[in-house]
Amino acid sequence: xxxxxxxxxxxxxxxxxxxxxxxxxxxxxxxxxxxxxxxxxxxxxxxxxxxxxxxxxxxxxxxxxxxxxxxxxxxxxxxxxxxxxxxxxxxxxxxxxxxxxxxxxxxxxxxxxxxxxxxxxxxxxxxxxxxxxxxxxxxxxxxxxxxxxxxxxxxxxxxxxxxxxxxxxxxxxxxxxxxxxxxxxxxxxxxxxxxxxxxxxxxxxxxxxxxxxxxxxxxxxxxxxxxxxxxxxxxxxxxxxxxxxxxxxxxxxxxxxxxxxxxxxxxxxxxxxxxxxxxxxxxxxxxxxxxxxxxxxxxxxxxxxxxxxxxxxxxxxxxxxxxxxxxxxxxxxxxxxxxxxxxxxxxxxxxxxxxxxxxxxxxxxxxxxxxxxxxxxxxxxxxxxxxxxxxxxxxxxxxxxxxxxxxxxxxxxxxxxxxxx
Length: 421
Fold this sequence. Notes:
This protein has 421 residues and is of the alpha/beta class. It is built from 14 helices and 16 strands. The chain has helices at residues 8-28, 31-47, 49-65, 70-76, 80-95, 134-145, 159-175, 192-198, 213-222, 245-257, 278-287, 296-299, 330-340, 353-362, and strands at residues 103-108, 114-121, 124-129, 149-153, 183-185, 206-210, 235-239, 266-272, 291-294, 306-307, 321-327, 345-349, 367-370, 389-391, 399-401, 407-414.
């Protein structure tokens, strides 16, 4: 049956069937073979750099014509350095410790039976993502190394880039003797294909959405399979009264401005009323090109600050915009974060160790930091290799999800003829 007559449901079902078959082969493949596949894929990415850049240029032209924001264009943009970074990330995943087969726990029952919990692949994973074409390589590498088949559905704005990257990854996988169907890219930009993926109960074992709030909300609302996701990255950097002023300025500017379009960017800065140099932080942000929206106390510090609305405290800007509030001590900061955070990443800048430890223990987020930029909220920076996403939920995996987060376990029982009385 040709693609013109295939419904999205038929397309996804066929891809899932191929993924299941490929996954069965992956489960029996040696780790050495998977490592070789990833190293060859990284090599193929480097060799395909001109083709990937050309494809990305077409995507960038179309995206600019369609009015994508500067932050979204930054997410989409590829150049030689970013492709090299992507290839290096694939190699880093190849060098990570193999999680499969790990004996998580082993016990011997009074009757002599030995019980083990052993780490195994999850199965077939669907990844739905927007803008960032590097996710194509990151997700493929992580899924394959953890023994999972992957079905990737990238955003229409990155269609050409995704196809070029996927072709290089498939080349490496095939060259190592593994099935290329282990990593498949949904060939259509029809949004109905997303719905078909979300309804593929019994065929997809996990869905991972990476994108804007509307995408993730749709996935969580419509999915008939388990979802690993976060809705927002409404991250806070709290400048405690004991913070070193120079460190505070540097960390806040980096946390907001290094890359404004990533989910680890700080969106709200809280400054303790006891901190002696609040105006310099506001000034540093403005001079770095950031628009500042503040409460009344912050507006009084600099005439260039715009009054913040109620909505600002609950907004993930993903742009050179920040909201700033003055807070009266640690308790006030904790209350603000509890009311407005998205449980992604929150940081305290402080020299007072007991206050910092209390913050780390009290804030209910997937990642909490002390004297570090929230821009470090990234699997690669955590030494996990490329991440498949950051989970703000409380089940299965939390924070950057990499190899271990893409596995589950099974019980292995060994007996010597025991019967149950």
